[in-house]
Protein backbone atom coordinates (compact mmCIF):
# COMPACT_ATOMS: atom_id res chain seq x y z
CA UNK A 1 0.00 0.00 0.00
CA UNK A 2 1.37 3.44 -0.92
CA UNK A 3 2.17 5.65 2.08
CA UNK A 4 0.47 8.65 0.39
CA UNK A 5 -2.95 8.70 -1.26
CA UNK A 6 -3.20 9.90 -4.92
CA UNK A 7 -5.32 12.85 -3.83
CA UNK A 8 -2.68 13.92 -1.31
CA UNK A 9 0.09 13.66 -3.92
CA UNK A 10 -1.99 15.84 -6.26
CA UNK A 11 -2.36 18.47 -3.53
CA UNK A 12 1.41 18.45 -2.98
CA UNK A 13 2.01 18.93 -6.71
CA UNK A 14 -0.23 22.01 -6.76
CA UNK A 15 1.37 23.60 -3.71
CA UNK A 16 4.30 26.05 -4.15
CA UNK A 17 7.78 24.66 -3.40
CA UNK A 18 8.03 26.45 -0.04
CA UNK A 19 4.87 24.69 1.19
CA UNK A 20 5.97 21.11 0.42
CA UNK A 21 6.74 19.14 3.57
CA UNK A 22 9.76 16.87 3.42
CA UNK A 23 8.88 13.21 4.15
CA UNK A 24 10.16 12.01 7.49
CA UNK A 25 13.06 9.53 7.40
CA UNK A 26 11.98 5.91 7.69
CA UNK A 27 14.07 5.49 10.85
CA UNK A 28 11.90 8.06 12.63
CA UNK A 29 8.79 5.99 11.92
CA UNK A 30 10.11 2.66 13.13
CA UNK A 31 7.48 0.48 14.78
CA UNK A 32 9.22 0.32 18.18
CA UNK A 33 11.62 3.04 19.23
CA UNK A 34 13.95 3.49 22.21
CA UNK A 35 14.89 7.00 23.38
CA UNK A 36 17.63 7.58 25.96
CA UNK A 37 17.24 11.10 27.33
CA UNK A 38 20.89 11.41 28.39
CA UNK A 39 22.02 10.77 24.80
CA UNK A 40 19.18 12.21 22.70
CA UNK A 41 19.50 15.87 21.65
CA UNK A 42 16.46 18.03 22.30
CA UNK A 43 16.14 18.85 18.59
CA UNK A 44 15.40 15.96 16.22
CA UNK A 45 16.28 13.21 18.67
CA UNK A 46 12.89 13.36 20.41
CA UNK A 47 10.58 13.49 17.40
CA UNK A 48 7.91 10.77 17.37
CA UNK A 49 6.08 9.71 14.24
CA UNK A 50 2.27 9.64 14.60
CA UNK A 51 -0.60 9.19 12.16
CA UNK A 52 -4.39 9.72 12.29
CA UNK A 53 -6.21 6.49 13.14
CA UNK A 54 -3.10 4.74 14.47
CA UNK A 55 -2.35 4.39 18.18
CA UNK A 56 1.01 5.39 19.65
CA UNK A 57 2.14 4.64 23.20
CA UNK A 58 4.98 6.02 25.30
CA UNK A 59 6.34 3.91 28.16
CA UNK A 60 8.73 5.52 30.67
CA UNK A 61 11.03 3.78 33.13
CA UNK A 62 9.54 5.75 36.07
CA UNK A 63 6.20 7.33 37.03
CA UNK A 64 5.40 10.40 34.92
CA UNK A 65 2.83 13.10 34.45
CA UNK A 66 2.05 13.70 30.76
CA UNK A 67 0.50 16.71 29.03
CA UNK A 68 -0.59 16.84 25.38
CA UNK A 69 -0.85 20.00 23.33
CA UNK A 70 -4.44 20.46 22.10
CA UNK A 71 -5.51 17.28 23.85
CA UNK A 72 -9.19 17.99 23.12
CA UNK A 73 -8.54 17.25 19.45
CA UNK A 74 -7.23 13.74 20.16
CA UNK A 75 -9.54 10.81 19.40
CA UNK A 76 -8.42 8.86 22.47
CA UNK A 77 -5.96 9.41 25.33
CA UNK A 78 -5.23 6.79 27.99
CA UNK A 79 -2.85 7.59 30.84
CA UNK A 80 -1.09 5.07 33.02
CA UNK A 81 1.29 5.29 35.96
CA UNK A 82 4.37 5.18 33.75
CA UNK A 83 3.10 6.11 30.33
CA UNK A 84 0.43 7.29 27.95
CA UNK A 85 -1.20 5.98 24.77
CA UNK A 86 -3.24 7.98 22.30
CA UNK A 87 -4.83 8.16 18.88
CA UNK A 88 -4.01 11.54 17.34
CA UNK A 89 -6.60 13.93 15.87
CA UNK A 90 -8.40 12.84 12.71
CA UNK A 91 -7.72 16.22 11.11
CA UNK A 92 -3.97 16.08 11.77
CA UNK A 93 -2.27 17.54 8.68
CA UNK A 94 0.82 16.00 7.14
CA UNK A 95 3.90 17.42 8.86
CA UNK A 96 1.88 19.07 11.65
CA UNK A 97 3.67 19.09 15.00
CA UNK A 98 2.21 18.80 18.49
CA UNK A 99 4.09 18.83 21.77
CA UNK A 100 4.02 16.09 24.40
CA UNK A 101 5.46 17.09 27.78
CA UNK A 102 6.44 14.59 30.46
CA UNK A 103 7.57 15.22 34.03
CA UNK A 104 9.05 12.47 36.19
CA UNK A 105 7.27 12.05 39.52
CA UNK A 106 9.77 9.95 41.55
CA UNK A 107 11.95 12.88 42.65
CA UNK A 108 14.94 11.81 40.57
CA UNK A 109 16.60 14.01 37.99
CA UNK A 110 15.82 15.46 35.54
CA UNK A 111 12.99 17.20 37.35
CA UNK A 112 12.37 19.73 34.62
CA UNK A 113 9.77 18.87 31.99
CA UNK A 114 10.99 16.71 29.10
CA UNK A 115 9.50 17.63 25.73
CA UNK A 116 8.77 15.39 22.76
CA UNK A 117 7.47 16.42 19.34
CA UNK A 118 4.67 14.44 17.70
CA UNK A 119 5.10 14.74 13.93
CA UNK A 120 2.22 13.77 11.65
CA UNK A 121 3.03 11.23 8.95
CA UNK A 122 0.45 9.79 6.55
CA UNK A 123 -0.16 6.06 7.02
CA UNK A 124 2.80 5.32 9.29
CA UNK A 125 3.35 5.70 13.02
CA UNK A 126 5.62 4.51 15.78
CA UNK A 127 3.43 2.21 17.88
CA UNK A 128 5.62 1.97 20.97
CA UNK A 129 8.21 4.38 22.33
CA UNK A 130 10.36 3.33 25.29
CA UNK A 131 11.90 6.25 27.15
CA UNK A 132 14.88 5.76 29.45
CA UNK A 133 16.89 8.24 31.45
CA UNK A 134 19.94 8.47 33.67
CA UNK A 135 18.74 6.92 36.92
CA UNK A 136 20.86 9.12 39.14
CA UNK A 137 19.02 10.52 42.11
CA UNK A 138 19.13 14.01 43.52
CA UNK A 139 21.37 12.68 46.31
CA UNK A 140 23.80 11.33 43.71
CA UNK A 141 24.07 14.72 42.00
CA UNK A 142 24.45 16.47 45.34
CA UNK A 143 27.20 14.06 46.33
CA UNK A 144 29.04 14.78 43.06
CA UNK A 145 28.74 18.52 43.62
CA UNK A 146 30.08 18.12 47.16
CA UNK A 147 33.02 16.09 45.87
CA UNK A 148 33.82 18.71 43.23
CA UNK A 149 33.67 21.45 45.86
CA UNK A 150 36.03 19.45 48.07
CA UNK A 151 38.46 19.05 45.18
CA UNK A 152 38.27 22.76 44.46
CA UNK A 153 38.94 23.56 48.11
CA UNK A 154 41.88 21.16 48.15
CA UNK A 155 43.34 22.72 45.00
CA UNK A 156 42.84 26.18 46.46
CA UNK A 157 44.69 25.19 49.64
CA UNK A 158 47.49 23.59 47.61
CA UNK A 159 47.75 26.71 45.47
CA UNK A 160 47.97 28.84 48.61
CA UNK A 161 50.69 26.55 49.99
CA UNK A 162 52.71 26.79 46.78
CA UNK A 163 52.39 30.57 46.80
CA UNK A 164 53.71 30.66 50.34
CA UNK A 165 56.61 28.38 49.38
CA UNK A 166 57.39 30.65 46.43
CA UNK A 167 57.45 33.69 48.68
CA UNK A 168 59.80 31.91 51.10
CA UNK A 169 62.10 30.94 48.23
CA UNK A 170 62.16 34.53 47.03
CA UNK A 171 63.02 35.67 50.54
CA UNK A 172 65.89 33.17 50.75
CA UNK A 173 67.20 34.23 47.36
CA UNK A 174 67.06 37.85 48.44
CA UNK A 175 68.96 37.05 51.63
CA UNK A 176 71.65 35.14 49.70
CA UNK A 177 72.11 37.83 47.04
CA UNK A 178 74.97 40.28 46.87
CA UNK A 179 78.74 39.93 47.29
CA UNK A 180 78.42 37.90 50.47
CA UNK A 181 76.86 35.05 48.49
CA UNK A 182 79.72 35.13 45.97
CA UNK A 183 82.29 35.12 48.78
CA UNK A 184 80.57 32.40 50.80
CA UNK A 185 80.22 30.15 47.73
CA UNK A 186 83.91 30.60 46.91
CA UNK A 187 83.13 32.03 43.48
CA UNK A 188 85.32 35.12 43.95
CA UNK A 189 89.06 34.72 44.38
CA UNK A 190 91.57 37.27 45.66
CA UNK A 191 91.50 39.09 42.34
CA UNK A 192 87.73 39.54 42.34
CA UNK A 193 85.47 38.93 39.33
CA UNK A 194 86.96 39.87 35.97
CA UNK A 195 84.77 41.51 33.31
CA UNK A 196 85.10 42.30 29.62
CA UNK A 197 82.75 44.35 27.45
CA UNK A 198 81.40 42.24 24.61
CA UNK A 199 81.77 43.52 21.07
CA UNK A 200 78.26 43.52 19.61
CA UNK A 201 77.62 43.29 15.89
CA UNK A 202 75.34 45.86 14.31
CA UNK A 203 71.78 44.62 13.89
CA UNK A 204 70.42 44.14 10.40
CA UNK A 205 67.07 45.78 9.55
CA UNK A 206 65.36 42.40 8.95
CA UNK A 207 66.29 41.14 12.43
CA UNK A 208 63.53 41.23 15.03
CA UNK A 209 65.98 40.43 17.83
CA UNK A 210 69.33 42.15 18.29
CA UNK A 211 71.95 42.48 21.02
CA UNK A 212 72.47 46.08 22.10
CA UNK A 213 75.36 45.48 24.50
CA UNK A 214 76.94 42.74 26.54
CA UNK A 215 79.50 41.94 29.23
CA UNK A 216 81.47 38.73 29.87
CA UNK A 217 82.43 37.74 33.42
CA UNK A 218 84.81 35.23 34.98
CA UNK A 219 84.80 34.21 38.61
CA UNK A 220 86.90 31.62 40.40
CA UNK A 221 84.44 28.87 39.35
CA UNK A 222 82.22 30.04 36.52
CA UNK A 223 81.93 32.28 33.50
CA UNK A 224 78.85 34.23 32.47
CA UNK A 225 77.58 36.42 29.63
CA UNK A 226 75.06 39.21 30.19
CA UNK A 227 73.41 40.61 27.06
CA UNK A 228 70.76 43.27 26.64
CA UNK A 229 68.44 42.25 23.80
CA UNK A 230 66.20 44.57 21.79
CA UNK A 231 62.93 43.01 20.60
CA UNK A 232 61.90 44.87 17.45
CA UNK A 233 59.13 42.40 16.62
CA UNK A 234 55.42 42.64 17.29
CA UNK A 235 55.33 39.67 19.69
CA UNK A 236 56.92 39.24 23.17
CA UNK A 237 60.09 37.18 23.37
CA UNK A 238 61.17 34.87 26.22
CA UNK A 239 64.37 32.86 26.25
CA UNK A 240 63.57 29.14 26.19
CA UNK A 241 67.07 27.80 25.63
CA UNK A 242 70.71 28.86 25.40
CA UNK A 243 74.04 27.41 24.38
CA UNK A 244 77.69 28.48 24.36
CA UNK A 245 79.86 26.71 21.81
CA UNK A 246 83.51 26.98 20.75
CA UNK A 247 84.54 25.49 17.40
CA UNK A 248 81.15 23.85 17.22
CA UNK A 249 81.63 22.08 20.57
CA UNK A 250 79.03 23.07 23.15
CA UNK A 251 80.05 23.87 26.70
CA UNK A 252 78.52 21.83 29.50
CA UNK A 253 76.54 23.10 32.45
CA UNK A 254 74.87 26.04 30.65
CA UNK A 255 72.11 27.79 32.61
CA UNK A 256 70.23 30.95 31.74
CA UNK A 257 67.89 33.53 33.15
CA UNK A 258 65.76 36.10 31.38
CA UNK A 259 62.47 37.90 31.76
CA UNK A 260 59.93 38.23 28.94
CA UNK A 261 60.91 41.07 26.60
CA UNK A 262 57.88 42.90 25.28
CA UNK A 263 57.49 44.17 21.73
CA UNK A 264 59.77 47.18 21.20
CA UNK A 265 61.45 46.71 24.60
CA UNK A 266 64.95 45.80 25.76
CA UNK A 267 65.59 43.10 28.33
CA UNK A 268 68.48 41.34 30.06
CA UNK A 269 69.44 37.70 29.52
CA UNK A 270 72.22 36.09 31.59
CA UNK A 271 73.88 32.84 30.51
CA UNK A 272 76.26 31.06 32.87
CA UNK A 273 78.55 28.04 32.51
CA UNK A 274 78.93 26.11 35.74
CA UNK A 275 82.12 24.11 36.25
CA UNK A 276 83.12 24.20 32.58
CA UNK A 277 86.53 22.97 31.49
CA UNK A 278 89.12 25.70 31.10
CA UNK A 279 90.06 24.51 27.62
CA UNK A 280 86.62 25.40 26.32
CA UNK A 281 86.73 28.84 27.88
CA UNK A 282 89.75 30.03 25.90
CA UNK A 283 89.29 31.90 22.64
CA UNK A 284 86.09 32.98 20.94
CA UNK A 285 82.74 31.28 21.49
CA UNK A 286 79.28 31.72 20.01
CA UNK A 287 76.26 32.45 22.19
CA UNK A 288 72.89 31.22 20.87
CA UNK A 289 69.55 32.17 22.39
CA UNK A 290 66.13 30.96 21.24
CA UNK A 291 62.48 31.18 22.18
CA UNK A 292 59.75 28.55 22.08
CA UNK A 293 58.86 29.89 18.62
CA UNK A 294 61.00 30.36 15.50
CA UNK A 295 63.08 33.36 16.56
CA UNK A 296 66.73 32.73 17.48
CA UNK A 297 69.78 34.96 17.78
CA UNK A 298 73.45 33.99 17.42
CA UNK A 299 76.10 36.25 18.98
CA UNK A 300 79.63 35.41 17.82
CA UNK A 301 83.01 36.57 19.16
CA UNK A 302 82.20 35.96 22.81
CA UNK A 303 85.48 36.03 24.74
CA UNK A 304 85.92 35.71 28.48
CA UNK A 305 88.49 37.71 30.48
Could you explain the architecture of this structure?
The protein is an alpha+beta fold and 305 residues long. 18% of the residues lie in helices and 36% in strands. It is built from three helices and 18 strands. A hairpin with a 2-residue loop joins β13 (241-246) and β14. The longest helix is centred in the middle third of the chain and has 39 residues, at 138-176. The N and C termini lie far apart (101 Å). Residues 1-24 have low confidence and may be disordered.
Architecture blueprint of SSEs:
Blueprint: H1 6-14, E1 32-36, E2 47-50, E3 56-60, E4 64-68, E5 76-80, E6 83-87, E7 97-104, E8 114-120, E9 128-132, H2 138-176, H3 179-184, E10 194-198, E11 209-218, E12 222-231, E13 241-246, E14 249-250, E15 254-258, E16 266-274, E17 285-290, E18 296-302
Parallel strand pairs: 1-9, 2-8, 3-9
Antiparallel strand pairs: 3-6, 4-7, 5-6, 7-8, 10-11, 11-12, 12-16, 13-14, 13-17, 15-16, 17-18
Mean pLDDT: 78
Q: Name the poorly predicted regions.
A: 1-24
Beta content comes to 35-45%
Kindly state the number of beta strands.
Answer: 18
Structural class, by secondary structure, is alpha+beta
Shape: elongated
Helix-strand string? HEEEEEEEEEHHEEEEEEEEE
Helix content: 10-25%
Amino acid sequence: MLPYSPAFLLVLALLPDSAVVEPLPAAVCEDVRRIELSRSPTKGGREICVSPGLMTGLLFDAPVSVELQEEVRFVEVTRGRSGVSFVPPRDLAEGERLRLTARFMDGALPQEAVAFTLVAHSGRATHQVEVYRDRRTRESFQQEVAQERAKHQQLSEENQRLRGELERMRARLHQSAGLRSVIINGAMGPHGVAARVLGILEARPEQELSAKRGVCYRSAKNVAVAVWLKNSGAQPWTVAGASLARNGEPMKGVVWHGETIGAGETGLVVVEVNGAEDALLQGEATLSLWEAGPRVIHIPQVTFP
